[in-house]
Design goal:
The protein is mainly beta and 97 residues long. Helices cover 0% and strands 46% of the residues. The strands form two sheets. A seven-stranded antiparallel beta sheet has the order 6-7-1-4-5-8-9, with no helix packed on it. β2 and β3 form a beta hairpin. The chain is globular.
């Protein structure tokens, strides 16, 4: 990877989702501007805030898809990342911006 580029592997979403209250949301319902989670696979030399293996939050509309060895990845700039999920000191998971 070059400069500030980040290569991520997206998580495949199931067709149906559940709300926080347990209500089943069918795949036909569209959500506007829903952010997506992905795992960092590679990072360029100028990337400072993420490393390989981090989970990041990004906007799926601001992406470039690429296929490497038969697997689909998303190529982003570091500035296009909204959040990084990280393990906190006490072992629980948290977000930092």
């Amino acid at each position: 990877m070059l400069h500030d580029r980040v290569l991520v592997s997206t998580e495949k979403e199931s067709q149906e989702r559940r709300s926080g209250g347990g209500i089943l949301i069918p795949a036909t319902v569209s959500m506007s501007r829903r952010l997506a989670w992905a795992e960092v696979v590679a990072a360029g030399t100028n990337v400072r805030t993420v490393k390989v293996g981090d989970r990041v939050l990004f906007d799926p509309e601001d992406r470039a898809e690429v296929e490497v060895r038969g697997k689909d990845y998303v190529l982003l700039r570091e500035r296009d990342l909204h959040a990084v999920a990280a393990a906190s000191q006490d072992g629980s998971t948290g977000l930092y911006l």
